[in-house]
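Build the 3D complex.
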Amino acid sequence: MQNTTWIPLFPDQASTFAWQVDALYFYLIAVSVAFTIPIVLAIVFFALKYRETEKYATPEEMHGSMLLETVWSIIPFIISMTIFIGGALVYFNQYTPPEDAMEVYVVGKQWMWKAQHQTGQREINELHVPVGRKVKLTMTTEDVLHDFSIPAFRTKADVVPGRYTYMWFEATKPGKYHLYCAEYCGLNHSGMVGWIYVMEQRDFDNWLSGSVSGQTPVEMGKDLFTNKLGCASCHAGGPAQRGAKLEGIYNNDVKLVGGATVKADEQYIRNSILNPSSQVVEGFQPIMPTFKGQVTEEQLNALVAYIKSLSPNAAASTAAMPATPAANATTPAANKPAAKPAANANK
Amino acid sequence: MNAQTAITEGHADTPKGNYLTNGSTLASWLLTKDHKRIAIMYLISVSVFFMMGGLYAATIRLELLTPASDLVETATYNKVFTQHGILMIFFFLIPSIPAILGNFLLPLMIGAKDLALPRINLISLYIYWLGGGLTLFALMQGGVDTGWTFYTPYSTTFSNSFVMFVGLGIFINGFSSILTGLNFIVTIHTMRAPGMTWFRMPLFVWAHYATSLVMILGTPVVAITVLLLAIERATHVGIFDPSIGGDPILFQHMFWFYSHPAVYIMILPGMGVISELISNFSRKKVFGYEFIAFSSIAIAVFGFLVWGHHMFVSGQSIYAGMVFSFLTMVVAVPSAIKMFNWTATLYKGSISFDTPMLYALGFMGLFLIGGLTGLFLGAIGLTVHLTDTYFVVAHFHYVMVGGQVIAYLGGIHYWWPKMTGRMYSEFWGKISAMLVFVGFNLTFFPQFILGYQGMPRRYAAYPEELQVLNIFSTAGASVLGIGLIMPAIYLTHSLIFGKKAGDNPWMHPGLEWRTSSPPPTENFDVMPVVTWEAYEFGEESGLDLEGAKRRDAASIA
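Done.
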């Protein structure tokens, strides 16, 4: 940890893109020094050399120089473009979650972070992740804006009510790192902090098996779907069902009433639960009631996870689940037997 | 002595009436249409807001001396940083240079009797008082804790503070900016003296032209945004709050569409002041005059296209992020051009180090750092790490305080003899300029390092390992505070005890120096006719340099 130095100058480097961000940082420091030193030297030199020798002197007049102006417009432009390109490459990497990442759901609320693993473990203001595994966070909030910030990983992302935002990282060094809320969220904003624990895979497995595991998100979603919320009464039951077919839709295009087509991603599924009449699938009536206010953000996450599990081929991100050790993989979504026949039967 | 010799010799022997002595009743001030008196009233009002904002800043720094939230309650701290931001931005930085120095000098510099719309000018002051008064009322009622950015849905649904009143105050105050900007544009187009062509105008005027464009085009958007926020809070129509069908990101787009250009309202006038100071104290025409003039306009135009760089991590698409990053890099170029041209102006000049020049040189150093760290924040991959941390806090204080406030102080000193007829104390002036420079750097440089550590903004409490740097910062803030209090004292003192300044103490060819100090109500006794280029410091622009030397020799003897 960084407590060893008197004045910490530099945070831990603990993710695969931390070095890229740091490289950009040092490049910009180099650019800054390269600009600052000549300008400051010139100012000091001119100030000394041309200091006033006679009051109200009239130095020789000088107009601008087109050549100089052009040179000192073009050089900063070229340098700024190298900065832009470097920044854009790193940014693209930071905000493009890989397909094969281990997924964790995160819900922010005034003033705590709640996380849930695919295997059901829940954590508050802590997040345990294995070293060397890509981890994707699917995040939302129950109330106001928050921001999930991990300086040691050199990444952060706002968490926005009413939608999902994503971030990902691959930790490279076991340890305990600061987690901050970086978007002002009211009274106890500076108390909305926690720790990221990066563990060796073996320790992580022990942690997973040691901590109490409830239902997985998919199981919880199935329970809500079939029992608690009664979605199944319209959305399951074969050709006669009143609601749109959910098997196999995830990440596929859906035709809407009115002719538009939309990709059934997580945002779409979420929106269809909260505002069902806004994007009705072609061939169905807008009869579904809204579930806004009746489901918590965590229940929504579970429902989305369950509906995703009904599309075993498309759900690339959950396909990585078998990578979890068999002992802990309670019900990897991709292997869910119940979903497969249903999806095939409708083809 | 006739007016013509007063112009050339830079002083008038016969005391005559000036704008300050023309009526001494309260009504003669409150009902004045004289841009100079309005500027003085702005100076007093803006200073009051600056002092209040400064007290809030002191509270912030004292709270952050220790890692725990112990000096004030967390709830109070949240209000303190919010109110520091609101007062400093809307009621100090935005009106500072335009409404005080711009108001006072713009007509003088272009040889006009007054602004084109003197009544509108007075109304803009009243509006500023009304908006400011409402805001102060809200602060006394209990204050506001949303951050100066008013991000939704916190500000519309979750905050129990006086958001509506403060919003109304800012909404009303916006009209003051709009009217001032409108007035400047009309004045520059229609009121220039004979011979005062566009390219003979001082760069201070060019900078104010660019600023006015931003004021007119940008301010209505923040007014609309605040109004929508009020509508949502009052009637629960879903605009920004997703739980009733709104979109919180929409608020950020609208807010920054104004507030980013507003950053240029806060820095362009400062750049205009610096061009004047560097030129005067090198006694040389600004190098690349046209490039500086057009770079102001370029900054004003491009400034409208980069608002999204405040939202790189807020969930906008990565391609939007890249476009905004690209445009941000483009807007850096005109600022770099200004920097190089100012430096080149010093070359082969005759440089003196009076207080305003110390401020100008300080500006160049601080704005350089402020501008370069802007590139750090424009590089999107890096800014994902830096945004919402103290790195951002340090960056914008380098630009806003290191830039605009330093320029404002330099400008106040430089034109003080014109505004009051008295010279400030050069000794105390230099000491305070140096204290401000040292104190400022000690306050804000450590915050860059804190930011790279990841210390988030708006935290009342922070991890213990970050304390040492925070102690540096607070120590620097106390030096900065002393440096800022000193001018208030010695400038006030100079009003009565200061040396008489004479009409043109700097022997500058600008029109504002070719009338008496303080100027008469109608600015010029005879309509000036401009036959010289801007910044011609030689005898050919009609300056009696020999006479000025004799004058100085006589005053020493």
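The CA atoms of residues 11 and 20 of chain B lie 18 Å apart.
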